[in-house]
Write a structure and sequence with these properties.
Rossmann fold, 18 helices, binds adenosine-5'-diphosphate, binds magnesium ion
Amino acid sequence: MPRVRHAAARGIRAVVVATDNAGEAAACGVAAYGFGSLRDVVEHLDGRVRVAPCAVPPRAGEPRHEVDLADIAGQETPKRALEIAAAGGHNLLFVGPPGTGKTMLARALPSILPPLDDDEAIAASAIHSVAGLADPRHPILTARPFRAPHHTASHLALVGGGSPPRPGEASLAHCGALFLDEVAEFSPSVLDTLREPLEERAITISRAAGAATYPARFLLVAAMNPCPCGRYGDPALECRCLPEQVERYRGRLSGPLLDRIDLRAHVPRVPYERLRDEGRERSSEVRERVIGARERMRARTPTRVNADLTVAEVRRHCGVDGETEALLAEAVRARRLSARGYHRVLRVARTAADLAASDPVRGEDVALALLLRAEP
Ligand SMILES: Nc1ncnc2c1ncn2[C@@H]1O[C@H](COP(=O)(O)OP(=O)(O)O)[C@@H](O)[C@H]1O
Ligand SMILES: [Mg+2]
């Protein structure tokens, strides 16, 4: 697909490809002729056997999502964090004891992500094509990818490599989400390889045979326990870990990686009364708000979601009133927020305001952004 897209962009209008790839090629907007052998190609070119170009394959319908937000009891604040992440493209970490719904929450993310536009659909599908993972009947993705590599994943599996260079999970998640469950169990050196894609939004793989650059613009969602036994900070249960064990456990998520995670939400145990609560909001309603917020962002900064706003754009679009500024100043002092941390709070607050269809960033948006920056 990348080769056919490249050719199409240069004005080539017809391509010859292997039969199995004809659907993918046709989806790139050229006449794609599929053949099983070079002899068939020659016969076609000689005019002895005429072959028709492959039809553009139909798009698959919208997928059914495995988890709906309405399935999840309580967890109002983590749900808001998930909604803000989906709308503004902010990376997100869930921290909480086992069995409180962290994995479930993360798996509900695809149900509230906005639909892929045509360019994104082709770009994401092209990576699946290179990795040999395209579905021949429906080579064009209709939903944002959601990749959840296991914590035993190698460097190669996560960011790609090999000869010829293959894309890894981080590129397969392009235009979608990369979910790292039990993130503290990943090898720190493997996690460290994510810094490049998180900064550059792409991964370059160099090999003797040449270098390949694959896009890797994904939303990072991670989940972890607060300590090895999972009870640290739980008001009802006593944590049995030694302080240095707790510290070492959290230290596995390195500062530079944590620094790129705008949203950190605690996922507490759900009280009994909430387990049977009624009237929970469905994913489809939340998704409408996410789509509305994205439209507001596009009107302001057409090429960037709020998580990617430059410092100048933060200054221009995230102004707050005097009272809110005082709240921020207090937080910067009390939590020793860096300038970078300060801008991140404002970007998250901007997204919270967009979800509420508010032009100004309000005090409550900043308060929520500060709440969602808990220390892991
Ligand atoms: N908030 C919740 N609402 C509904 N069911 C829940 C909730 N939290 C946990 N569960 C149930 O417990 C199971 C385990 O939850 P999970 O998301 O794997 O927890 P965690 O990842 O925090 O350990 C889920 O499959 C679900 O059946
Ligand atoms: Mg889990």
